[in-house]
Amino acid sequence: MNRAVSSLGKDLVGLEHLSPEQILTILDTAEPFKEISERRIKKVPVLRGKTIVNLFFEASTRTRISFEFAEKRLSADTVNISSSGSSVVKGETLVDTARNLEAMRIDMVVIRHGSSGAAKFLAERIPSNVINGGDGSHEHPTQALLDMLTIRDHLGRLGGLKVCIVGDILHSRVARSNMYGMLKMGADVAVCGPSTLLPLNIEDLGVTVFKHVEEAIEWADVLNVLRLQLERMQGGYLPSLREYNQIWGVSRARLERAPKDVLVLHPGPMNRGVEIDSDVADGPHSVILDQVTNGVAVRMAVLYLLAGGAPETAEAAKQGAAT
Amino acid sequence: MGSVSGQTGFMMSGGASLVKLCRLVYLLAPSTGVFSLHVAIMDKKAVRRTVARMAQELVEHNEGPHDLALMGIHRRGVQIAQLIQSEIELAESVVVPLGSLDITLYRDDLMAIGPMPVIGESSPPEGGVDDRAMVIIDDVLFTGRTIRAALNELMDWGRPSRVSLCVLVDRGGREIPIQPNVVGKTLSVLPDQTVEVSVPDIDGRWGVDLVSLKSEGS
Predict the structure, then answer these.
(1) Lower Cβ count inside 10 Å, N or C end of chain A?
(2) Which chain A residue has its CA at the smallest distance from B77's CA?
(3) Distance, CA of B171 to CA of B84 (rounded, Å)
């Protein structure tokens, strides 16, 4: 009962620098947390007395609510801060906001921010545990972890699976975290999307590039369909949504032509009829709602593991904050 | 081999015949001067006999097996619970529902022990815990803190009609007021001694040992 798990350190900023063992630890720890959400009293006292701040500088429903459920089911006290209702609109800097929160004796911060690197920036400056809830187009580690947990639930493994990420790879932190995570866990990873939405030299990461979604579907065991970020339409990356759907959309007809059953994931929010058709999203291949259920368990696991903490890194951050 | 002196330093409630079962094993670590002394308290036969009696007492205590449900505490308590379940089935021809409890998330020292421990599986018995006579089963009862945690977890699952506690070994040393209802064996244990229960799934055998840690010359 006293076997300890491999430590995650102070923060979860991304999957890029985690070892396969650490990722496996999070996934395995998430398993027993699934049961807690099925109880009549959905609460365990493990984080009793811990104060967690959800610092969301960008719009979010799923991630914020999922984190909040995870925190509450572990008995932590939570505060939600969004940029619109806070002193951020008065021009307060991120570090000042965080240090003021620290002065009120908090234990953990979950941050969602529009700038890549915001989570790491904060983690280096405050002694509280920092969890990245999505930063710019950098990483969204808990999303990739819940994707991996869902895939493992349905297919029993991650190693050796063929996983293709479809859509806007260029702007997607979900794509980046998934690529790092799935490659570390031994999966074959591919990406598929319009060339305007693929980063240059993406092959260097060790992923395959498909030019046509039909080829990707034929190859893959798992399709992770990303949201087409409609706000990108202004940038001239795409001619029209209708054309995108015709060429890149995951439709039932395309899935039926595949030689084997393909598992379909989507991180949400979905644009039905753009990147994914309704009969796919609600169809037998889709595990989209399982992803949402697993999201709470994965976030509970991350909070639990970080709360155990690595005191020495917290100490280093405290000294960094003083200088 | 250094010479081993001194007494084994344990007392048993079970009577002199059990001393015949005792097997002394000296494990010496010459470089450190620390050795552990293993004294076998119960072998497989003795464990089975004791567990059979405990099962009988449980059924008697609850006036029949029909409302009973067993909860083994992760990890060794689960296997003792399985043995009790099969003993009740032998005697009463009733399969009593069996669940398991992992108390990790309810520990009172979780934030003090450093890296987080692995969490085991918790599963309520078939049919839930409401209006059931629940029996918490563990291998060794010591401070009582594990049982405090188990009671809290059980109450989060529902409202049992009654809860009783059944342990293979009560070694004394309670830090909170917890009292077992059914006990396999009571041992008086010195501060430098521990009780080790072995179960087949984890340790490869059934057995109860008293382990003394001593350093050379003490």
Answers:
(1) C
(2) A1
(3) 20
